[in-house]
Design brief:
Elements: H1 5-22, H2 31-48, H3 57-72, H4 88-96, H5 100-114, H6 119-139, H7 151-163, H8 174-192
Length: about 190
């Protein structure tokens, strides 16, 4: 399948854990047992690392690669597919915490931008704008509209981004920070016109 030896070893490690949970040898695993074992490992990892933004990512990545190998080896009969949990309820709840005038303006910007950008790009734009809006609500409650924003708010937010953990752990890279601030800058520039 073209996986390097270390990746193959880590995939086997993940399959062995799932097989142990299912009580079957790895070569007898079914797709249903893989799915159930994945959910159990994700739940256990999330409990052990509640402060990590995506604690189960290594497990899911390894199992996805292992599923591809098992499918091509004829052990399972369903090809793997990436799963992305539905977080729409979490996103909607986060938006409800934002000051009403600010929320209406930012959501309007997102809807207008959605008309001209690809859906995958819009996922990122919405996430960046929402994170900023939620941060403002928690750390700058005096900002109830875009017109209330000052340079000091942006500078504080920039320091916050530089310190907060990234999705993969550690800090945002310089490029990641620049991309996030660039997306936000486009939004705020268009709203201030």
């Amino acid at each position: 399948m073209g996986f390097d030896p270390k990746s193959a070893e880590l995939q086997w490690w993940a399959v062995a854990k799932v097989a142990a949970l299912a009580g079957v040898p790895p070569e007898r695993l079914t797709k249903a047992q893989l799915d159930t074992g994945r959910e159990q490992l994700i739940a256990a990892t999330s409990r052990l690392h509640p402060d990590h933004p995506m604690p189960a990512r290594p497990v899911t990545t390894r199992l996805h690669g292992a599923e591809a190998t098992l499918f091509h080896a004829g052990v399972i009969n369903v090809p793997p597919r990436k799963r992305h949990p539905d977080k729409s309820a979490v996103r909607a709840q986060q938006w409800t915490t934002v000051q009403p005038r600010l929320r209406v303006t930012l959501e309007g910007y997102i809807e207008q931008t959605r008309l001209s950008l690809r859906p995958a790009t819009m996922v990122r734009v919405e996430a960046v704008v929402r994170e900023f809006a939620v941060w403002l609500t928690a750390h700058a409650p005096e900002v109830s509209a875009v017109s209330d924003l000052r340079r000091a708010h942006i500078e504080r937010y920039k320091r916050h981004l530089a310190q907060r953990p990234s999705v993969r752990g550690g800090r945002l890279s310089t490029i990641g920070l620049a991309e996030q601030l660039g997306t936000l800058r486009v939004c705020l520039d268009q709203l201030s016109e």
